[in-house]
Amino acid sequence: MPGLQDVTRGRLLYGGDYNPEQWPPHVWTEDVRLMRDAGVNLVTVGVFAWAALQPAPDRFTFDWLDTVLGLLHDGGIGVALATPTASPPPWLGHHHPDTLPQGPDGIRRLYGSRNQYCPCAPAYRRAALAISSLLAARYAHHPALRLWHIGNEYGTTCHCGHCAERFRGWLRDRYGDLDGLNTAWGTAVWSQRYGDWAEVLPPRRVQYVINPLQDLDYQRFCDAMLLECFTAERDAVRAVNPAVPVTTNFMDTYRHTDGWRWAAAEDLVSLDTYPDPNDPGAAVRAAMSKDIMRSLGGGRPWLLAEQSPGAASWRPVATPLRPGLHRLWSMQAVARGADGVLHFQWRASRQGAERWHGAMVPHAGPDSRVFRGVCALGRELAGLSDVVGAAVPADVALVLDWDAWRAVELDHQPHFAFRYVDRLLDYYAPLWRDNVTCDFAPAGGPFDGYRLVVVPNLYQVSAADAARVTDYVAGGGTLVVGPFSGVTDRDERVHTGGWPGPWQELLGVRVEEHWPLPDGSPLDIASPLLGDFTATRWAEWTVARGAETVAAVRGGPLHDRPMVLRNCFRAGTAWYVATLPEPDALRRLLRQVCAEAGVTPVLPDLPPDVEAVRRGDLVFLLHHDTGRVEIRREEAP
Amino acid sequence: MPGLQDVTRGRLLYGGDYNPEQWPPHVWTEDVRLMRDAGVNLVTVGVFAWAALQPAPDRFTFDWLDTVLGLLHDGGIGVALATPTASPPPWLGHHHPDTLPQGPDGIRRLYGSRNQYCPCAPAYRRAALAISSLLAARYAHHPALRLWHIGNEYGTTCHCGHCAERFRGWLRDRYGDLDGLNTAWGTAVWSQRYGDWAEVLPPRRVQYVINPLQDLDYQRFCDAMLLECFTAERDAVRAVNPAVPVTTNFMDTYRHTDGWRWAAAEDLVSLDTYPDPNDPGAAVRAAMSKDIMRSLGGGRPWLLAEQSPGAASWRPVATPLRPGLHRLWSMQAVARGADGVLHFQWRASRQGAERWHGAMVPHAGPDSRVFRGVCALGRELAGLSDVVGAAVPADVALVLDWDAWRAVELDHQPHFAFRYVDRLLDYYAPLWRDNVTCDFAPAGGPFDGYRLVVVPNLYQVSAADAARVTDYVAGGGTLVVGPFSGVTDRDERVHTGGWPGPWQELLGVRVEEHWPLPDGSPLDIASPLLGDFTATRWAEWTVARGAETVAAVRGGPLHDRPMVLRNCFRAGTAWYVATLPEPDALRRLLRQVCAEAGVTPVLPDLPPDVEAVRRGDLVFLLHHDTGRVEIRREEAP
Amino acid sequence: MPGLQDVTRGRLLYGGDYNPEQWPPHVWTEDVRLMRDAGVNLVTVGVFAWAALQPAPDRFTFDWLDTVLGLLHDGGIGVALATPTASPPPWLGHHHPDTLPQGPDGIRRLYGSRNQYCPCAPAYRRAALAISSLLAARYAHHPALRLWHIGNEYGTTCHCGHCAERFRGWLRDRYGDLDGLNTAWGTAVWSQRYGDWAEVLPPRRVQYVINPLQDLDYQRFCDAMLLECFTAERDAVRAVNPAVPVTTNFMDTYRHTDGWRWAAAEDLVSLDTYPDPNDPGAAVRAAMSKDIMRSLGGGRPWLLAEQSPGAASWRPVATPLRPGLHRLWSMQAVARGADGVLHFQWRASRQGAERWHGAMVPHAGPDSRVFRGVCALGRELAGLSDVVGAAVPADVALVLDWDAWRAVELDHQPHFAFRYVDRLLDYYAPLWRDNVTCDFAPAGGPFDGYRLVVVPNLYQVSAADAARVTDYVAGGGTLVVGPFSGVTDRDERVHTGGWPGPWQELLGVRVEEHWPLPDGSPLDIASPLLGDFTATRWAEWTVARGAETVAAVRGGPLHDRPMVLRNCFRAGTAWYVATLPEPDALRRLLRQVCAEAGVTPVLPDLPPDVEAVRRGDLVFLLHHDTGRVEIRREEAP
């Protein structure tokens, strides 16, 4: 099976999206020259070129692409060729209005923007497969071709009749018959029982709260339909030349596509990431995204497919990256396993909705701060070939689960602002600040080789997944579980008899009630081990059943309820955290856990804001503040 | 006519909604056992059971309900049987899409949630009447049956063609002909004159503000249609066994259904109430709701039909009730006239949109804080049979008027945030804090026997209602009228010549202009009698015409305008308050008024946060804070 | 060509909208009497009278209007007669649903409010022209008629099929063929290329950001269609009696209609203005609106067509004007060039959505504070005939451009809250505070005779307009240009090679990057000339290319970047301001610029809150605070 190594061929990749169809041919020549100046060796071509390649249903214009690919190849620049199916031309929507997606309100979304397709519409599927197949037939053996880039940032949803029809089929596959569906969806509640498959619909506009599993299943279904779209195009290009690897570009922490399933369907993992330079948490969020990408690929190198050297135009306040930040964040990607740093895009578009998006060649032209920085970074990356293919070691795994994410964010959960990604960051951030490198793992593992497994939040848990976590602790592992976990099964049926459902014995605790807290009413928590602290937004009515109380509430209705518990379970140790402690307290807790589990940082005692990551034989030291720090390497005694 | 006494039979009712269709039969047996442990003697069955009873248009399955009613009866537990018409099965919407309600945007609301019916759709009306009649035919003489519970929390609105047709008929009945409609709606404004009945429509999506009386009349019409739905089902069940009383469950201060009209149509009044444990004003709001229920029933006992012993799942932050709060609020209901305390629901649903709603048997099961509290309360209520049927005496009546409420909250009123329920609370809360028990009364009275009548706000007033209030004062009564009152007639036509329209002589004041105030600009008001105070959001350009000025503005454009006036009118006294004083000032004012009118508290000089209510021979003392207070009964000297 | 002088005939106009169709005839007589008491000499009749004049498609009722015009004429009161086409009767929408406008969501807006017409619907156009022509035929020579008032506050938009068809024609006229359209709209971006005119649509609901020029062109097109509606009715009335001048009423700073184009199409300019008495900036906003009106008419007198002597009913908090404020703002209009002060409306409506809008005769009636003030003002204006027709001199011109305004507020601009009117006020307000009178001018001038031209913001600039500004400076003028200017061409194509595009040489600066700033992160700026100051929200990465740096950033990523630059260009001076300085700093800057350019205030050294404007031989002194000030006239030495 081909992989990123077939693209890198020993060199870090550097480049960006290239949209020559927006420019006259004389610019193409200048582009290749400037790319060479900048050290570019891979560009992504054709992402939005469908209308340029097929201006009418029965007319094709590949000649310009022939020319461009030839110029690039002559310049020594490799190509990631895209199937252009993320943005159909207006003619598709005009001739096949049923390819235009409908909102839950039944209103169709028109062309004039992008992404206006229903993933279930047969006419869309046919047209997308046709253009992809033609591209494959023409270019799959082109010498410039290094990589197939399928679609773009998959994520479109639709609620139309085509979707309803496919949804019924998907449900039939999942639940067998209507009785199965009625049982799973709990339609005995609110008189929702279905008597005929024809009655079953996507969630559309309703009077009040929608059935939660109908909502969740539709999210799962939409994901599956997009994956079908991807797979069909992947197969079409692979069929012509199986040696060329295939990818599609993921977005930062994106709920709609299940990373584990998608990563399994592609040859290498790619990420589009746009940290906000105005967000003080940008570095840690970016680090987490990057660790997730590495983990989705099973530890193999991944590709940074898009970032901006300037502004991200969709931000309400689109501040550009300050000098140095583009280099810093690029290096963070390489440190955390990326074997390539690409951008959206090569040359800033003069027109269209993204005309204010940063680019390697900005509107001001090559004589600019930005382009000079791009060239400097290109030179620097060219000197880092040693890390190509190298691994990033980690002793800690955080559990990441898309279904539990979607479920915990359904409507009418006990706290409307309980957000899954915040929960991940609660635990990832203190570990990152202490330079403890983390992988991510699915809810069912495997967890072999990790000294510590952290489950920041796992609202839905199946018996099988629960058992694997239990086995991990039983075998000597250390586990930390965060609040509102083990609450429902995969059909969103509440575990009765107390929570965290199947983990009560493992954790030595029984939760009787969830206790969301209004803003402005922090809990006061006492802990001899961790020091006293406060917690907000969430608590639980816990009853210790064998676990040792590490921290308990002081005062108020939850007085004396344990909020942090430690339980010795067979050969291992399991912690339960029933609330959302203030960040410093959670950091102290995780330091304690790491110390007990034998987890150590990449380098100890670094100044604040210095990130350290080991990759292969190198340790990357990344300073996220703008002042100067000095770090001395101590000689071994 | 049957009433609540036919349900209580001398004992306070205790129980909740019971949805056995969500559980396998073996749970039913456990349920009856647990109900007996808890002292439950009434459960509401079948509220959302339509699909369980009629899984297809032509198929009926009553056997499970036969079994359940038998089990309950054998266990000595009475049944409030519901007509299940609040939530039609999917087949109704599927076969009759015209039963699905349309928003003002014309978009239909689908099944998958609940309440998806158009109250005017003939197919819905037929189906609802059919299932209700079948239930009546089968169970109206069942020995377990104590009460009919029609529908659930009526409140659905629709804007479809069926509604348009019925709306025209309703308007024709009200206004006679098109000239009458054009005159009433003031269609000379903005060129809205109707020349043909076919042109007349519900308020739908428009470019700018809708005609205010079109909006208000549509609210009145929707209320009337829902009442028709209720009445049809009531008549169907009453026809089979007139001895069984009929009710439907109201919601806390709900604008869409006119409590006075609805209460007149049922045998007893029921309330669903969900105070927010995070709201510092929860106790006073709850007390007001309960006093309203007692008043709607003319002082007779009423039924607390739904509350939660835990969380209310639809709250953004669904905090459960702290220990003791469930008991406290239940006792408040009994103190204020309830002869029963029911809950939504008996056993927590494992599935569906309300799986996080509190229940008497929570997810954790009977071994839980909540269920133990439920059992303790059951025992306590069983010991309170003395109050069953007893009255709650009150010397004060507050005027409550649904039409004025709707009108004062129409679009483009002078202050967008002038809310009717806030105005009621302005006056109710200080009286509650001083333990002065209040009834509520319609705008036209009767006011016989009250020492004090308070009109917190009455934007719309008819000549007839105005005259009754005037007569009350003329006959020696004391009256307080709040701001923005007496402004329009019942057709929303502004009273000209100054306000409060027909009450200028009664109150001895003429208001020339309303003077809404922006936030952050309080009025400074001087009053030798009440002490100086501030007021916010609302003032008026008043001119005293005979009344004595009790408080007047100091500084600013309204300098010297009277804000509180007292007028001797024949044998009585009438106060006018033209602004929204700070709460303590209004409390001082009402103490003054009560003292002059001879109104006294239930008990004087109680500590703060202690509520005292007399019911029959008992005085209930309810402490709303969590600390301890000691109250000693003084011996009569 | 007729003008305002044909209406005034030497007297300031005074009056308001008069809607007799809302009142019985006996009120008409009282109205004329009260108008005479108040000094009213012009009323606007018939704005919303379409249904009263044509109650059915084939029925007309002009008799009441004959009577009213006769009564007015007999009372010596002139009439501005309206074509009533802003609010079609229900029968039009009922018989021609395609005249009802569609939102971008395809949902039609119904009657029941006002403005429910599609400007492109042929049936609307026909009906509007027909009623206008009949009015003209009947009244164009009526002795009371002084002025035609076409429509009302033009501004309706629609996205229906009629609009789509006309939009295609408009685009064809603009861009020639589909290639032209594709080139202009940049459809190579995101695969939006159109292959057939039938594919081209208005911007409707889309998945993501709309094509920016599609959006902008649709705004231009909607403006053009409304102007067509106006022009057709104007021509119809003019054809019958060309001696009667024609106007339509503009709204305060309203983006949807291009004032320069509209003013050129009418005989005189009119304004509806409703400053918010709770807005501390009301006086300066109002002054700016009034100066814009004078400028749109090329310096000729204009008409204040609507204001309120009380509240504006559409405000969320509709506070009335405090005593004195109605007089003050009326005088401000006269001072700034108005030859008439009219109101909406004469007599407060008892019904309808605007029943809480202030009026000359309020609900309380003539015996009221408001009506007494109205009469006093009438007397005062009658004594000011000297200013009728007089000019308001100004040495400064601010550039005002509707297309640039629309473009800078498109979606996904670098800062979502960069608002054009705020930018105008940034520069207008300090000049106003210093009593420097300003005109407004189009982007292409002419600028002859101005000592100073200010371009607060001009995001779009054409080569031709840019050249005219350059010529102005070259010829000795002084120019100030604000940030984010010279950025795109009129087809919204970004100027490459640095900004402000064609003005880099003129201003001696090259901007490489725009640098929007998040809230809470002010820039620290050092300036020996102006004193240090802070700036917010916006900055730029500037490189001085010949200009002198007047102020530069201190610290942070933009350290040392010039933020204020002064460039000597041929005989003139050009300043560039790359950020949004705090108001006092911009005031110091403008004082410096004025001093250098020889611009002086109307009167120097006035107390704060005193506004001075010269009109003809008079200087108006307007005190905007409520205290007292004393201003002494110094004798010439």
UniProtKB/TrEMBL annotation, chains A, B, C:
InterPro entries: Beta_galactosidase_Trimer, Class_I_gatase-like, GH, Glyco_hydro_42, Glyco_hydro_42_N. This is Beta-galactosidase. CDD domains: A4_beta-galactosidase_middle_domain. Its EC number is 3.2.1.23. It catalyses: Hydrolysis of terminal non-reducing beta-D-galactose residues in beta-D-galactosides. Transmembrane segments: none annotated. One of its GO terms (molecular function) is metal ion binding. PANTHER family: BETA-GALACTOSIDASE GANA. The lineage of its organism: Bacteria, Bacillati, Actinomycetota, Actinomycetes, Micromonosporales. It comes from the Bacteria. GO terms for biological process: carbohydrate metabolic process. Zn(2+) binds at C118, C158, C160, C163. Residues 17-382 form the Glycoside hydrolase family 42 N-terminal domain. One of its GO terms (cellular component) is beta-galactosidase complex.
